[in-house]
Amino acid sequence: MTNLFRDNIYNEFPDPNKKIDDLGLQVVDVANKMEWVDVKDFGAVGDGTDETNKLLNAFTYALQNNIPVQLGVKKEYNVTSQIKLELTTGKRLLIKGNSSTIKFTGSGVTGIQSMLEVTDNSTTNLTNTIVEVDDLTFDGVGVAEQWAVTVYANLKQLWALTLRADTIRLNNVQFKNLYGYGIKVRGYQNILINGVKAENVGGCWYTNDTYDAFGDAIYVGGGKQATNETTINNVHVVGYPSDRVRKSRIGIAFEKDVEIVNVKNIYVEGYNRAIHIENCPNIIFNGVSFQTRRSDVHAYVHTGYKTLAIDSWDAECTSGGAYGGRSGLIAFDTITDAPRSCKIKNGKIKIINDVATNFLSEKVVFENTEIISSGGRQQISGGDITLRGGKVEGKALRVFAGLLETHGCNTEGKDTNPVIEVEYSSSKGRLLWNGGIMKDSRIHLINVPYALFNNFTAIETMNYQYSATCVFVSDFGSKAFVKNGTLKTTTNDAAKFTFADSRTVYTGDSYKVLIDNTVSKVASNVV
Questions:
Q1: Which residues lie closer than 8 Å to 422 by C-beta, 6 or more apart?
Q2: Which domain holds residue 490?
Q3: What is the pLDDT at residue 474?
Q4: Which among 71, 95, 126 is the end of a domain?
């Protein structure tokens, strides 16, 4: 790209050794000739010295004249304090990084400090302002991690970007070594974040699991007006390594009047919550292709939402921490707005350790989703859960005081433990099972007053005998109804297999099919 500043300005000013700050107001006369301005014209060359003021002067000039500013190619610019800029109405700041790094080499200050803060100072009114950063790395290596600090007021937080503008665009921006935030947006109307990477970004104050103060890779908050939009694509964010005493706070957070959100192709690892949504009663959240690892709660929703839909979610749920007493895939807290919907589609959820969450009264649909135990089980308290297609494998799921409904969901046992357990409590707890293939599986009911199994096929290979007689539905103080089921066995001894315990009532024609294809009808009791 041609630098019209270098190519044209010195035709107006014959001394080519003068820098912009030396030339003063005369530069404004040729500002309309510039395509962009280069920070080296303000003396910033990436030579290892403190270049905070030089970058500040370059960014300020570019902002005042609505001219894009660029850094050198693959340079490293040291800064020791905050660069802060104010956007007035109609102004824009466009920074092209050219694969360079702004490196914070100062020791920080007690409290909060941003490497770059750009704000239009308007939380609700539109100002026609733009901030755009492209191909730039922010490294906060100068401020050390502070896991042992137990007094919040004594922390030295370092945030890379603090932004407030109508339009914010970040492309191929990287963050590393930041004990604070990568990006914190505190007011916007439209956001596009693409290709962001973060490593060793976050941190978390010494506290309990019901309150925390900082430590997000990406924080989007403060939608200025209705129908604000956020688009986040191709993001890979990792908190600190697993040997730290705590996880960082949040991978990607949405808070306070965020409305339309589209997120695609993200990887989040090492945060207490991978995704956090709070105080966004009108949020319509659409996600595609998620990978979440080493999170205590993979998605946490607090105080309202309209739609939460995630397609292709690969999550590994492990124990080791919680938030608000909840752990696992999704948690809800203090939800009051209606109507709302939550759907997880084409997911693969691996339960590595025992985890427990609360769905309150939420209706959550898992469509074509695999829930697989790799040694652990997800307990869900409350809620109305629907499994459409998909598969539950191993001792993967326990529903406490909630409704579980299935449509064509398959199950497969891996040992004598029940694949799914449903317990009735506080006047809540039902199971409606429709279709699907149950292989070597047992569904365990505890005090459930009504459970219906309809139009399903059970297959027993004798690999995991629960008792002398293989039982597909075991119950304790429960009432189960079996309708139109088929039990396929691997022997000719029909006595070794039964659909359910003796309290079960058969309301339709059900059959046992022995290995030689002999069919015996289970007596029907019309209720």
A1: 398, 399, 402, 404, 429, 430, 431, 443, 444, 445, 446, 448, 451
A2: 390-527
A3: 81
A4: 71
